[in-house]
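## retry 2 of 3
previous attempt timed out at serialization; input unchanged, resubmitting
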Amino acid sequence: MTTSLWTERALPSDRQPIPLRFGTQVSHREDEAMQRFRRYGLGQFIHFGLYSILGGEYQGVSAAGGSAAPEWIRAWSGPTAPEGWQGIYDRLNKSFDPAELDAHAWARQAKRMGARYVIFTTKHHDGFALWPSAHSDYTVRESPCGRDLVGAVVDAYTAEGIDVFLYFSVLDWHHPGYLRTVPATDAERAGWQDFLQYTRAQLLELLDRYPAARGLWFDGTWDASWIASHEFTHALEAELRARRPGLIIGSRFRNDEHGARHFDSNGDLLGDYEQGWERKLPASFEMLGGNDWDCVMTIGPNAWGWLRDTRGQYQKTADDLIDLLMRCRSMNGNLVVNFGPDGLGRMTAHEDEIAEQLGAWVAANADAVYDAHHVDLDRTSAGWLTGDGDRLFVTVVNRPVTGILRLRFPAGAERMPISARLLDSGRDLPVRLTDIGFDLDDALYCDVSIPADLEAEHAFVIELALGEASASAGDRIDAWM
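## retry succeeded, writing output
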């Protein structure tokens, strides 16, 4: 019943490592910061900015079809886009005033939900900074808001014991030197170098202003211009780590000299944890190669920022998120649920409901969530397995119609279940070891009886205490063919 074992992503046996100047800078970390990361379990993402004023539309006209998502609305194009749209959007800072934004209320809600870390958007692709950056003229300082919203979030969440990661988009539509393509002229190269130094200055400023922040979460690093700047980004990563010992940086910040992202050309992780799981999850624990990871997940199908009109779009329920959370934990990952407050700083009614329902479930089943990890057992179709060494937890999301939860243990297992109970109520459940008698299968099966009178509105967790194995499969006559 082991937890994770870390291994590098192996190269094919017939291939030699490639000499790299700008490959990975870190190996698997076992310091206190990364140990905390592995115990987070559940996190919250908050997308908030100028786009939150609009909710995916302007003057009653939806940007759907002309914009990838509400937080991308500045890129609105096509026949529905208003004339002079980008200029209209760029002046939204003049009306940005989230008067009802209460960072302490946000943090208290996140605490009730069970989140142990938050990722907050300091600057999205539009370039508008939610702190009064000394390196930009496009910040909360140049708006009716006037407040340092990043500082408010850092202080409020830290006071609740929730770690803060700062989201930062490299892609910046507001900076005149930003390019999507590799700069080709002297003017473009000069503008790009100005942009790189601006980016460096803002990142160092964030670390200096907010010493409580534990990590940086990067976005917008896919354009050819950034990929070609691998020497600069390699040096910048080293500088950020030196400025803040213990800083956690995910795998999407930079690439090596061959353009390899997330993993360098030798298959080594480019960062402290794998950050490629956005609105998707790994198919298996084995494919992760032992790397730390998290999954960031929207409540709706795609929107990260506030969407005014969600009609016709499925909104994930607390049950959906419980399922995703325990699927992540069964593979040693964290689930980060995104919230998109409106332009006044208010969470939606559905987000409020999600936070309360998910929080109640996590509180009742915390032992199976936070300090429990992957276990080396066959999957069960009934749900997800986690364990802490002495206990095995089964989060039942598909209740067996037979009333029997059956688990397969390999031959020679040193520890087996000796008792079972419902984690939330403590109700004892009958458990027995079963030798089914499959030929050429000397495994043992553990059967847990689920009471017919058990009423469960959500997934429930069965806790199995592990003890010394006292049974083995008996000798059988071979099934001759």
